[in-house]
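Supplementary Methods S3. Input chains for the assembly prediction are listed below.
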Amino acid sequence: MLARAFITEPIITANPVVRYMLGICSALAVTTSVSTALTMGIALTVVLICSSAVISLIRNHIPNSVRLIIQIIIIASFVIVIDFLVQAFAFDLSKRLSIFVALIVTNCLVLGRAEAFARKNAVWPSVLDGLGNGLGYSLVLVVVGSIRELLGAGSLLGFQVLPLRGDGGWFEPLPVIMLAPSAFFIMGLLVWALRAWQPSQVEEAEFRLQDPQEKII
Amino acid sequence: MDRVSITGIWRWFLALPNDSAAKTLGMAFVVTLTASVFVSISAVTLQPVLRENLAREQQIQMQHMLQSLVGMSDKLNAENLEELVVRLVDLQQGTFSDQYDPALFNQRVAARDLELSVALPLEADIAGIRRRSNYAPVFFLPANNGPPLIILPVHGAGYQSMIYAFLAIEPTTDTIAGLTIYEQSETPGLGAKILDPDWKSLWRGKKIFDERRNIRIAVVRGQAQGPHEVDGISGATRTGNGVANMIRFWLGDLGFGPFLQNLKSGELEL
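Predicted structure tokens for the full assembly:
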């Protein structure tokens, strides 16, 4: 596999969020604005790259019985440090992200990549895989965040794009977009659009659908 | 005999079969130790920056709080905000205290400090705050003619969040001059209506006590009657009650009651 494919593949065709439905919880929670989505995306990408690198580095010496514990310890330490860094250098954003940076520990996407890739592959491919998946996650977050911020507040990255009615403009913000269920709907539409465009992403049915003509005996 | 060296032990350890007990315990130990050293080092190095951020945050909050006072009473506007005097009050004694710098005193931090706060008995804790700081900053707006305006910081549990507010009162007439809420996360569209200027203005001019100096101020359902009652918000009874209980608590004996009493009886001079 080409090195480039490790990065490009998880962005569209094998996107961890919209293809494999990993990391949905945080994707719903932090996408009320582009800036929080972006910070969360960067934080997760850094954690993913670092933890993939370390786990892949010691992959031949991880005892199978404590495998998950060791992976989680490594991920958790990186998450704590990243959380400190965000609090130190992006304090205002850290208040809005509140607990979600710390909750990267439990993000199935990170552990998923450690289990599925980093513990079986060399360091450099693991780093690229981490970067690719981090970018794929960030892309979905930013897309959902842009839609929600635009429709829910009429702004993008804090800049007022649509003039609000309250300030003499024409745009009435939709408060429902700011609630978590709307993120679900937007994500669902995104999944639908992506699978309509690339039918290869559609999963095989887990059971055969009943043919209406068929007689049940 | 071979010389035992650290690298030798390390090589022997790495060569152990992965699933042997020694390797399992050893790897768990090594990884945990490395991770904790890594986390500790970054925590210690970043500590000063984090402290600085918190201090700046506190200052901004103070500014924000003072800004929210503008317009809560006819007497308070952007021009005379500068004239506000802040003093620290010992809540139990009801007297002024010079123990701490009033402008920097943080009630929320103090309420978590066992020596700077008291635990409230359940039946007296109508505001739902559990612990109360022993000191509180109080703001005065000196008036050229007539009594000064007193602004008290208050907080109490609403329906789903802690509500932080300022209560302005005219001590000589025991009248509420205004209420301004600067922090809450009640239900948007229902409880969060306590932020509506219309609702806040209902408090203006309400009497706190009855003739026997019992606290009578309350939020009621339906039509408010008399000088002690304020209209509730429909669909947000518990938020309204929360605000009322908060005010009743802070004006009561465990709140600013002793201080206001001393002020009224003339034992305390501003």
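The radius of gyration of chain B is 27 Å. Chain B touches chain A at residues 14, 18-20, 23-24, 27-28, 31-32, 35-36, 38-39, 42-43, 46, 49-50, 53, 56-57, 188-189 (CB under 8 Å).
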